[in-house]
Amino acid sequence: MEKILIGLKTNRTFFIYSVLAFLLVVIAIFAPVIVSHDPLEAMMKDAFQEPSSQHLFGTDKLGRDCFSRVIYGARYSISGVLLLVAVVFSVGTALGVVSGYFGGKIDAIIMRISDLMISFPGTILAIAVAGIMGGSLINAVIALTAVSWTKYARLARSLVLKIKKRDFVDAAIVNGGTPIHILWQHITPNILPTVIITAATDIGSMMLELAGLSFLGFGSQPPTPEWGLMLNEGRQQLQTAPWLMVFPGLAIFITVVIFNLWGDSLRDVLDPRQDG
Amino acid sequence: MSNKQLISRIGQFVLVLLGISFLTFALTMLSPGDPVKQMLTGGEDVFVTAAQVEELRHELGLDKPFILQYFDWLYRTMHGDLGFSFMARLPVVDKLWECLPATVLLSLTSLAFMLVVAIPAGIVAAVKQNTWVDYLIRSFTFLGVSIPGFWLGLMLLWILGLHLGWLPIVGGRVALDTIILPALTLGIAMASKYTRQVRTVVLEELHQDYVMGARARGMSEGYILWKEVLPNAMLPLITLLGLSLGSLLGGAAVVEMVFSWPGLGRLAVEAINYRDFNLIQGVILWIACMYMIINLLVDASYHYFDPRLRMGEK
Predict the structure, then answer these.
(1) Which residue segment(s) compose the domain that B31 sits in?
(2) Which of A25, A122, A203, B191 could staple A259 via S-S, CB 3.0–4.6 A?
(3) Chain A to chain B, count of Cβ pairs less than 8 Å apart?
């Protein structure tokens, strides 16, 4: 935490990207204040209007204001991806820590499952899981977690194996610390920074995966103004109303760029050994 | 590969396939709908009696315990029978063969595009590290990995297809003019990733001691690059290439959907929408097989490219 604060003061690129990322979150939180129309309100007589001063990004087939939907979309898309990263991070790290600390059979089982997942293209499995369970944001998160946790598990496991050999862990064991106490107080705090950096740099690519599932219809469902889903709806009107496709996609693109830049600069701040 | 290694790799291959097959089979249990009913109605609003549903369920063996069903299915699968696809009205195996060429063709075309762009770009970026050329290439690759593939595809379709009218916007067939856009869309994303990897690998080699040694002996930079650095960089790059090809064969579903490309990815999505479980299981198993065969070939190719392994065998 301290390092991040120092980084904000001393590292100008990190400061700028942090502000931009923060701005996205602010847009998501204050969406109701920013927008000019209700994102769900259908006005059939206003359908398919081109972008104008009234409707900055035009309107869709139900006459809903595209600008308002894109702004509201920040809520669903950004909270969705943060939820996804948090879940993948927690599940993967927990399994990895347990696997690395206890070793033996638990380790063998977790690692064999992880081998299985790695020797397989994850995207198609995520599509199948999300699609079969039925499209919803939660199911999409479950599906992507099922195929992405292995990366975190492997990372956490290797870090735990390194730390386990250190003297302070032995000291804690000799002092009669329970495994839960040792894991929570001594092991986890030491591996978190590295795993968090990985999670931060993954936000962008996770967002692409999640939007991809929504685009296929296996994520958020209508009438949610979620960017991937809006693109799916917009692509049918590619010829007549291209603005329905341009703006939600641009929103995803910009958000992913900002989060990728932020993740990379966070890594530079927290882990100065790596460069470029 | 020594015989022992080969046997252990094949054993692993079989184990993973068993795991994957169990996973794909278990997927059907996640489904909220009733596949038997779906089969009878064909997804339409037709009335069927409970007795009819039960009869078909019994006939298909779907009233047996899960694990027995799995073994039944595994037995049939090992005999090359993946069941009948209700969506395609064909045996699943036939449908898979039908869609395979389109996916392979698209994968290889995008892979070719990726190599033509990424190898020179990556090498140049590494050699000219921290100059404007490097920054320019890195900026492009950064944008390339951040852009959503489906959006890039739609934009290309809109600009090149609709506005300029250079390329057809109606897909659904495999031809020279319809492959350009999906291959370009996939290729741009892949090339961005691969350029970064090529750059990293070449940079790593350039920082090795032997390069300094070669420079000290007065060898030209060109000689060092072509005769020393690149051959050494080959090996990791081939691994990454194998992974790219594997993910292309399995993960192009979104782009195939955008361009209505009649390949395996689109087949998977359609099968899911139709709840055609035989077909879903078939596609996933099929893609898993291809992915693993490619990985096996990549491992085998080490042998060809790495003299240390070739010699060590004797």
Answers:
(1) 3-93
(2) A203
(3) 131
